[in-house]
Specification:
This is Acetolactate synthase catalytic subunit. The protein is of the alpha/beta class. It has 12 helices and 10 strands. It has 3 domains: 51 residues, no CATH class; 168 residues, TPP-binding domain (Rossmann fold, 3-Layer(aba) Sandwich); 92 residues, 3-Layer(aba) Sandwich (Rossmann fold).
């Protein structure tokens, strides 16, 4: 919770709502709580119609990395032999999704979606490198961590001592977490899609001089990714007979979502690396801290907001039972 307040004077409701919206929308974005007791809500007061039409009186705080840090990150990525991207959340916009797609293609950087809560890269992109960071960790000399709470399991293996770790996102250090021991040699703080735009701009002048270097990197990377894809295809083939597996269910739901440009809201039910999703904002998984019963109400809310789209809620029996009371409340109201 970023901010909470209880309304005491009815004529101040406008400024409190404006402040709540500005704080919730400031980076890093998060929830606020404005309590509206019965007593002030029953009061009468004069309304300033001009102020109502003027829009919010407070705007959200936005920020971007300093140019020196962007330049250092671009130089490290351009010169690396075995760079890798670990991403948990996506670039949050269709434009950012496209920028990340271009970045990994142009610089031959594999991207791993470890415990991904959103789709970060189209399944059509040949640099999508599955969901296992350990395959890439030992050789990586530059790691770009994109808005990831836990980009890999340190207890199972850590990055090299000479590796440069770049942390990117609205709060790269996850400052509200009491413990998080991942290195951060360079921090790029800001809206993810905007940071990608700055990074893309800084990398462009370095590209011509690194073409041979990138070609060698691409050959190494794509051979390893092909091995992972062969293993994935073998699992899917084996899943077509017998009881339904999570791999096969994910594949079928992903095919349906791609066909109709739909969205999957999942709660530990689907595996995005097997869903094969190809468009931005097509997948949402509950946060790593958990949220039993949240997927179905979120899916209902999305469907109400986007009635023309296909919204798929993929939940287990426990999640469904936790969500039924919330759903009943929504239907009654």
């Amino acid at each position: 919770m970023k901010w909470d307040f209880e309304l005491r004077l009815a004529d101040q409701i406008g400024e409190h709502v404006d402040r709540a919206w500005a704080i919730a929308s400031s980076l890093p974005k998060g929830p606020v709580y404005l309590s509206l007791p019965r007593e002030p809500l029953c009061e009468t007061f004069a309304v300033d119609e001009t102020a109502l039409q003027a829009g919010p009186s407070q705007q959200p705080v936005r920020y971007a990395p300093v140019r020196e840090d962007i330049a250092r990150a671009a130089e490290a990525i351009a010169c690396a032999r075995h760079p890798v991207i670990f991403a948990q959340r996506g670039a949050r916009t269709a434009e950012g999704f496209a920028r990340l797609d271009s970045l990994v293609r142009e610089w031959a950087i594999p991207l791993v979606e470890y415990w991904g809560t959103e789709v970060t890269l189209s399944a059509d992109n040949p640099l999508l490198a599955g969901a296992d960071p350990s395959v890439w960790l030992a050789d990586a000399d530059v790691i770009l961590v994109v808005d990831s709470q836990a980009p890999w399991m340190i207890a199972e293996g850590d990055c090299r001592q000479d590796c440069t770790v770049i942390q990117m996102g609205p709060d790269p250090l996850f400052s509200r977490y009491p413990v998080r021991g991942y290195r951060a040699d360079i921090n790029l703080a800001g809206e993810t899609d905007e940071v990608f735009s700055l990074l893309e701009e800084a990398l462009r002048p370095l590209q011509a001089a690194r073409q041979q270097h990138v070609a060698e990197r691409a050959a190494y990377t794509q051979s390893r990714i092909q091995q992972q894809k062969n293993q994935r295809d073998a699992l899917l083939h084996a899943s077509q007979t017998g009881a339904i597996t999570k791999h096969w269910l994910s594949y079928c739901l992903g095919h349906l979502a791609n066909q109709h440009r739909g969205r999957i809201v999942s709660e530990l039910t689907t595996l995005p690396q097997f869903a094969g999703l190809t468009h931005a904002e097509s997948y949402y998984q509950e946060a790593l801290a958990g949220g039993l019963g949240e997927a179905l109400p979120i899916a209902l809310g999305l469907q109400l907001a986007r009635r023309e789209e296909l919204i798929i809620a993929a939940v287990g029996d426990g999640s469904y039972l936790f969500a039924t009371l919330r759903s009943a409340t929504i239907l009654r109201r």
